[in-house]
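Design request, tokens follow.
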């Protein structure tokens, strides 16, 4: 099977130029599905912590299997890398680089990808995915840019007070659809901002999102705040939006 070009797993790497980011560009990696054709348009998943999603989450491997063995319609994945030293500053609403990163993402990254690849350019065909702070910034981007994003995958989202305030200040969120999970062993996880009960952070966010009209699939199960847990959840998360029984 591996000799057939139809089944080849293709990942391209790029530097996306930026006027907003001080470095002047950001590294991304793009997974193209088996049988990729430039003249077909595809749904697209945008991952925060792109390097981790590909290396530790094995999202390209999962996707290849789901498309080839489960018969899912093909889709493209864009992983957006982050410098771990700058991650909190870029991903949290009170961070020094938050406005630079969110503007880069919405105003530069999305147009660049859509000019280079045949991805669909409507909100319900763009999915934002992230783990921990990456899950929270994915929701945050959807709140900032509702005309661009309304589909979220959140793996153990770090819903600190600054994100909760964004949800509270939002009007109706009945256009939003989310898949969220948290591990039951994440009830005392040490972060650079203190030790948090991620189970309660996610339960509180879910209650607030549902009050605002968002549609959710929310999962709690045994798991720790690490990729060993999240990697196993990626197929279910993707299936919420791309599988045979999407969230209605």
């Amino acid at each position: 099977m591996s000799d057939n070009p139809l089944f080849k797993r293709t990942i391209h790497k790029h530097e996306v130029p930026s006027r907003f980011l001080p470095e002047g560009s950001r590294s991304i990696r793009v997974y193209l599905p088996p049988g990729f054709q430039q003249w077909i348009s595809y749904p697209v998943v945008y991952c925060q912590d792109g390097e981790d999603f590909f290396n530790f989450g094995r999202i390209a491997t999962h996707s290849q299997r789901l498309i080839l063995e489960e018969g899912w319609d093909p889709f493209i994945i864009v992983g957006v890398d982050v410098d771990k030293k700058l991650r909190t500053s870029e991903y949290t609403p009170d961070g020094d680089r938050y406005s630079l990163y969110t503007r880069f993402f919405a105003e530069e990254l999305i147009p660049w990808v859509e000019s280079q690849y045949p991805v669909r350019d409507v909100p319900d065909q763009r999915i934002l995915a992230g783990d921990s702070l990456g899950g929270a910034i994915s929701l945050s981007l959807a709140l900032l840019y509702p005309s661009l994003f309304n589909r979220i995958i959140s793996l153990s989202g770090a819903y600190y007070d600054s994100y909760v305030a964004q949800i509270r200040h939002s009007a109706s969120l009945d256009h939003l659809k989310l898949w969220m999970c948290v591990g039951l062993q994440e009830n005392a996880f040490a972060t650079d901002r203190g030790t948090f009960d991620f189970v309660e952070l996610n339960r509180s966010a879910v209650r607030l999102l549902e009050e605002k009209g968002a549609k959710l699939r929310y999962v709690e199960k045994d798991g720790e705040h690490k990729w060993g847990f999240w990697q196993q959840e990626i197929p279910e998360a993707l299936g919420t939006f791309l599988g045979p029984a999407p969230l209605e």
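Comment from the thread starter after seeing the answer: thanks! The chain has eight helices and ten strands.
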